[in-house]
Design brief:
heterodimer, A: about 280 residues, mainly alpha, 2 domains, 12 helices, globular, B: about 290 residues, MetI-like fold, two-stranded antiparallel sheet
């Protein structure tokens, strides 16, 4: 008798199936976004994985077991290490130069009206949308015409050139959103142009400057096409990888790539955390 | 004195950047145009002879490469729109607090060097590689299945490499849409499809336009993907330019081809901007 009622109780209860809580339900588009991220991450995962591959041949595309050998022998290939060092120093120098020059250009464009502003904006737009191969080819044409030897210096000149527009545009966007009254107030309180810039303007545009600097660094360290045309005998990390694709890319490249990836992600996450905390 | 300095200030601020761009961007392009009309060779030197045939010969010899580059560029750009839009849509409207996390995940490839990304993508597509190898061994793929060294491989690499350029502008445009506008559409009895087609999609088009500008140019002038993934049968105009410069030292021909490529792409972009969105597109692209 009791079992019967129990059965009836459960019977009446089961049709009202509890709905899955909202946060556990997953929509089609959500799934799609996750799949897209998976697709984008797949080659990165393979890059990281094959830095641990215990490969014996020159080719590194078949999994042959786990090893930390390539991390221990990371600097064994001297020319690869030199190429990475070149890439890093060029990126740092070009970021420093570009950030200073580009910030002033962005300030001028965002704040003042002056003759030639329209054409400057047009040149910036052209510099951003010009195909990289054309920039590289034209620089090479110039170096050939003037018989200039290509090398570290010409790479640096080129990297600053193609990053300026990006920094200027980033800073300009920040400057346009600022209230000019703040600077006027500083002036009224007796601050000279330099003090005003250092204590008022610069802190206000700092997020734009930092974003521009980060962009300049990434553009420089990642650039292949323009560097290829302006490098001469100097080799950077991307050029070295490109050269190695014909004979087989050694696992050290994967390890270097993994380390650069890890540092980059770390910096991005930390800076995002910081700015989130600052906003709160 | 302060007045003069005040008026001079913007010029002084723009001067270093302006000079740098003039010296290493504008002057080289002028010199390249000049070089493209010269004749000669590396040993005897080049002379200005206004040799227009560098252009006509170059275009007739490599016309098919130009067409292929623009075709690959078009297919990869459209693929990027189709792939990027739904994800950008979901993140902008349903991402909630995790919005920036999802965006960050979509940008992850950018923390890996472009070349290394392409090489890793080649690994994914390699016949006996870590992905296709096991799939074929287990009979999922037919025996003769082959991706590498085809046009599909090149386009897939291009789409993979330049997808973030499409995701970001579309996301920004969608994110800017006032949710009240969408609610208004529902209040006026629009179905979900109608609200999307007649409200959200038109409002997001500037982002798509900007994305097209930011992807189409680098995609159709790229030569790395064609070289690493496409093999010798699927070369693009960038490969020709590179070979003419480095292997043949045919500087005038290479210059003519580069300038023709730039002219075609820039004229195309300005025409596109003018017909579809004029100022907005240029501004969005500048951002």
């Amino acid at each position: 008798m009791t079992t019967h009622t129990e059965a009836r109780v459960t019977l009446t209860k089961t049709p009202r199936r509890r709905r899955v809580p909202r946060r556990f339900r997953i929509s089609g588009l959500h799934l799609y976004t996750l799949a897209l991220i998976g697709w984008l991450v797949l080659p990165i995962a393979i890059m990281i994985l094959f830095g641990f591959n215990d490969t014996r041949s020159k080719q590194n595309f078949q999994w042959q077991g786990f090893t930390l050998r390539w991390y221990r022998h990371l600097f064994d290939k001297g020319d690869l290490t030199a190429a990475v060092v070149n890439s890093l120093t060029i990126a740092l120098l070009s970021t420093l130069i570009t950030t200073v020059i580009g910030t002033f250009a962005g300030l001028a464009l965002g704040r003042y009206r002056f003759r030639g502003k329209g054409s400057t904006n047009l040149v910036l737009f052209m510099a951003i949308s010009c195909p990289e191969i054309v920039m590289g080819a034209s620089l090479l044409s110039m170096f050939v015409t003037f018989n200039l030897p290509r090398g570290y210096l010409t790479i640096l000149l080129a990297h600053v050139m193609f990053s300026i527009a990006f920094v200027a545009v980033t800073v300009r966007a920040r400057v346009v959103g600022l209230d000019p009254a703040v600077e006027e107030a500083a002036q009224d309180l007796g601050a000279g142009p330099w003090t005003r810039f250092r204590l008022v303007t610069l802190p206000m545009i700092m997020p734009g400057v930092l974003a521009g600097a980060l962009l300049a660094f990434v553009l420089s360290i990642d650039d292949f096409v323009i560097t290829n045309f302006t490098s001469g005998a100097t080799v950077t990390f991307p050029l070295w990888i490109y050269g190695s694709t014909r004979t087989g890319t050694p696992p050290q490249v994967n390890v270097m790539g993994t380390l650069i990836f890890a540092v980059g992600v770390l910096i991005a996450v930390v800076s995002a955390r910081r700015s989130a905390r600052a906003r709160r | 004195m302060a007045g003069v300095r005040g008026r001079l200030a913007p010029y002084l601020m723009i001067l270093p950047g302006g000079l740098w761009l003039a010296a290493f961007f504008l002057v080289p392009i002028v010199l390249m145009v000049s070089l493209s009309l010269q004749t000669g060779n590396l040993i005897d030197g080049f002379q200005q002879t206004l040799h227009w045939r560098n252009y006509t010969d170059g275009l007739s010899t490599y016309g098919d490469k130009f067409v292929r580059s623009l075709w690959y560029g078009l297919v990869a750009t459209v693929a990027c729109i189709v792939i990027a839009y739904p994800a950008a849509y979901w993140i902008a409207f349903r991402g909630g607090r995790a919005k920036s996390t999802y965006l960050f995940l979509l940008l992850l490839p950018y923390f890996v060097s472009f070349i290394l990304r392409t090489v890793s993508w080649k690994l994914v597509l390699t016949d006996n590689g870590p992905i296709l190898g096991p799939l074929r061994d287990h009979g999922v793929l037919p025996e003769g299945f082959h991706v590498l060294d085809t046009g599909v491989a090149v386009v897939s690499g291009l789409a993979y490499n330049f997808l973030p350029f499409m995701v970001l502008p579309i996301y920004v445009a969608l994110e800017r849409i006032d949710p009240r506008v969408v609610e208004a559409a529902y209040d006026l009895y629009a179905s979900r499809a109608q609200a999307f087609l007649r409200v959200i999609l038109p409002l997001s088009l500037p982002g798509v336009f900007a994305g097209v500008i930011m992807t189409f140019v680098p995609v159709s002038s790229d030569y790395v993907n064609a070289e690493v993934l496409g093999g010798p049968q699927n070369t693009m105009i960038g490969n020709v330019i590179q070979t003419e410069y480095f292997n043949n030292s045919a500087y005038p021909t290479a210059s003519a081809l580069s300038f023709a490529l730039m002219a075609i792409l820039l004229v195309g972009i300005f025409a596109y901007a003018r017909t579809l969105g004029t100022q907005d597109v240029l501004e969005a692209a500048g951002r």
